[in-house]
Write a structure and sequence with these properties.
heterodimer, A: 357 residues, mainly beta, 5-stranded antiparallel sheet, 46% strand, B: 357 residues, Hypothetical Protein Tm1070, Chain: A, 2 domains, 11% helix, 41% strand
Chain lengths: 357, 357
């Protein structure tokens, strides 16, 4: 009897722990690491990002954050760029924007239940209650922000208490007033209780994960590129995607290199595929991944589903749409929305922190 | 003889150890299960789209996708938030098939709809038709509830559905997108018309929970009402609206379910305020209409964290932030404000579907 009970218990344990290991990253829940995959500032075009960070617990916590600046540099001029088209003589072979990877870190303290917020360009000179300051990123920035819960000694802890929201805004006062925002929840990576060893190597998922794993497959619904807006009946829709690798080495300032496989389904149940390599961050329209397979005239239907499978590192994804509405204000309106995650990667990802003061 | 006794003792000891360990794991897992189980990031068996509007200024585009490799079916209900009138229809989606429709137009079944092409930009109905979707007339303001069913119409927990809504201001083209909120289905479905959300075994739910439970507490990270937009400056303002949908639905008797919401607000100075409000079925509330505590002038800081708890059960919440530019000719933009589900209602509740006859 006891042997049977022991065997049943063992089977249950394996099953139960297996199920528990299926925890995944989420934009829904408070976590020990929060990732803002897209932070954008370009003061010349009236664009900036509001970042909100809250402590969802009843005790104070310390937080270590790193801005990843992927703003590029033109090959043919000493100037910053986001796309090849931003460089002189666009369209020529010399007009290439090399992506950058520069880091800027800071440490703050949040009191119990405290929400804070700041404009990315300006930062926060001092927190409302004593707790440090947030540096501004300046007038031109494209990149990401990640924050990790630490203790007073600077050691990463297992407290799943952080929640974040980002609002990417464009405001133009003249010649006509235009205002447009896209909003998303920061993507949380929860710590797994009892697994943290306190070192600077944060193991995300895998067999010995200290944090829940990044998604194996990510899916999202979208329009195909160039769809005539079916609601307004005017203007066209251009879908886009932001990808941020789960793996990053801050100590040696080395971004990941990730090959992503894409499968695209249209409303006829037809499937096309493509792949694309990226480094520190991928930001752009779906048509920049593969112009043909995201083209409305190739796919033949308004909407589709994309499934993406990253290979060398997990990825955190954010989908967005740009609607070229010509009806009212004549501006481009943007909406951000979360994607769906299916399963977790078997291989772990690694976040290597620098020494924390 | 003594060695056999020793073996029995050892087996008994191992059995007790494993039994104890199992109970500990059960306790941990049940503890974990007390966290919120709904997700905007995973395919689900019940989809809730809390806010849909058709009027002179607004319309919506709805996308629903089957993420599985098999044909799937869903039974959907539009529920008017004012009259509580329901309008139901069926969806059939082939493997991996996405589909879409505009709320005010619905979708007809016509296999001869031509696909999109350079000569046919008006191709809204291209693709495999998912079934007849009725249009909602101007004045509709309410929710959409979709339940995954098997081919004969009985509810099942297939966890294949995801959805996205794009709310459009047709006068300006401004778009706010949000993902459907999903409830995962379990293998415990008894195929009847009473869908058991969370909770244990009862007379109504003889097999216990058939779906994950609804959140009882959500957190909302937002701006105080009336806070100026940092880019638009003086005269601009930000407002937040909550859409509330009690999880329990009685679609058999068309009876709205009440909810009593308790709100705990934390400002940046670690000060806490408490208030409450009640709704009867679907409702929309400006935060400033619930209490002037939510206004910038009263609460004293820009950034707030609000915890919303339904005192009686589970509730679905969607936030919407409206930014107005101010000035002589003010323009505004809206964005969905994602919330964080924190805890699940432990008591269990039901969605009662109308009978199939």
């Amino acid at each position: 009897m006891l042997r049977r009970l022991a065997l049943a218990s063992l089977i249950f344990l394996l099953t139960a722990t297996g199920a528990y290991a299926d925890a995944h990253v989420s934009p829904d829940e408070a976590a020990a690491i929060v990732n803002y995959p897209y932070v954008f500032v370009d003061v010349q075009t009236g664009r900036d990002t509001f970042l909100q960070l809250s402590n969802a617990s009843d005790t104070a916590v310390d937080v270590f954050c790193v801005y990843e600046d992927t703003t590029g540099t033109c090959a043919n001029a000493a100037q910053s760029c986001f796309e090849n088209a931003d460089c002189p003589n666009p369209g020529t072979p010399q007009s290439v924007c090399f992506p950058g990877f520069n880091l800027r870190d800071f440490r703050i303290g949040l009191t119990a239940g405290q929400p804070i917020g700041w404009l990315a360009s300006a930062g926060l000179t001092s927190l409302p209650l004593p707790g440090g300051s947030v540096p501004g990123v300046g007038g031109q920035f494209r990149g990401a922000l990640r924050c990790v819960v630490i203790d007073a000694a600077g050691v990463p802890t297992e407290a799943n208490v952080l929640e974040g929201v980002a609002t990417v805004e464009r405001f133009q006062a003249s010649p006509t007033t235009q205002i447009d925002v896209g909003k998303y929840n920061a993507i949380g990576i929860q710590a797994i209780a009892g697994t943290g060893n306190g070192d600077s190597f944060l193991v995300v998922g895998g067999g010995v994960g200290e944090y829940s794993g990044c998604p194996n497959v990510t899916t999202f619904n979208h329009f195909f590129d160039g769809v005539l807006d079916p609601v307004v009946g005017d203007g066209h829709i251009h879908p886009g995607l932001v990808l941020l690798p789960c793996t990053v080495d801050y100590a040696n300032q080395v971004p990941a290199q990730v090959l992503v496989q894409y499968l695209v389904f249209n409303e006829f149940e037809q499937r096309l595929g493509t792949s694309k390599l990226f480094g520190a961050q991928q930001v752009g329209l779906l048509s920049a991944i593969n112009q043909a397979i995201y083209d409305i005239n190739v796919q033949g239907t308004l909407t589709g589903q994309t499934r993406l499978l990253p290979l060398q590192s997990g990825v955190l994804a954010l989908a967005f749409e740009q609607n070229d509405a010509t009806a009212g204000q004549g501006g481009t309106f943007t909406a951000d929305f979360a994607v769906q995650q299916m399963g977790t990667r078997q291989q772990g990802d690694l976040i290597v922190l620098p020494p924390i003061q | 003889m003594s060695s056999r006794r020793f073996s029995e003792r050892r087996a008994r000891r191992v059995g007790y150890c494993l039994l104890t360990l199992s109970l500990v794991v059960i306790a941990i897992l049940l503890g974990g299960a007390a966290g919120a189980q709904v997700s905007e990031g995973k395919p689900a068996s019940i989809l809730m789209l809390p806010l849909l509007v058709v009027d002179a200024q607004h319309d919506a585009l709805i996308q629903v996708t089957n993420t599985s490799r098999n044909r799937r079916f869903a039974h959907c209900f539009y529920i008017d938030g004012t009259s509580w009138q329901q309008t139901s229809f069926d969806l059939t989606l082939n493997a991996q098939q996405p589909t879409h429709w505009v709320l005010s137009r619905g979708r007809q079944v016509d296999a001869s709809d031509p696909p999109c092409s350079p000569t046919n930009a008006d191709c809204d109905a291209a693709g495999v038709d998912p079934g007849l979707v009725p249009p909602m007339l101007p004045g509709f303001r309410g929710e959409l509830l979709c339940v995954e069913v098997e081919q004969s119409g009985f509810p099942i927990g297939g966890n294949a559905l995801v959805g996205v809504v794009s709310l459009t201001d047709v006068t300006t083209g401004d778009v706010a997108s949000y993902p459907a909120i999903g409830l995962s289905g379990f293998d415990t479905s008894n195929l009847d018309g009473t869908l058991c959300l969370g909770g244990g075994v009862s007379d109504t739910c003889p097999f216990g929970a058939e779906y994950s439970g609804c959140p009882q507490t959500w957190t909302l990270n937002h701006l105080a009402d009336g806070t100026p937009d940092a880019l638009a400056g003086s005269g601009s303002s930000v407002q937040t609206t909550l859409t509330v949908v009690p999880c329990a639905h009685d679609l058999l008797n068309s009876v709205p379910q009440p909810a009593v919401l308790q709100l705990f607000v934390f400002n940046q100075l670690e000060q806490r305020f408490t208030m409450s409000t009640s709704v009867n079925g679907w409702a929309e509330r400006h935060l400033a209409d619930i209490s002037n505590v939510f206004t910038r002038g009263v609460i004293g800081t820009d950034y707030l964290q609000t915890r919303v708890t339904d005192a009686n059960g589970g509730v679905m919440l969607l936030g919407r932030e409206i930014r107005s530019s101010g000035g002589a000719q003010p323009v505004s933009t809206s964005a969905a404000l994602p919330l964080h589900p924190e805890t699940t209602f432990a008591g269990g509740e039901v969605i009662v579907l109308p009978p199939q006859f």
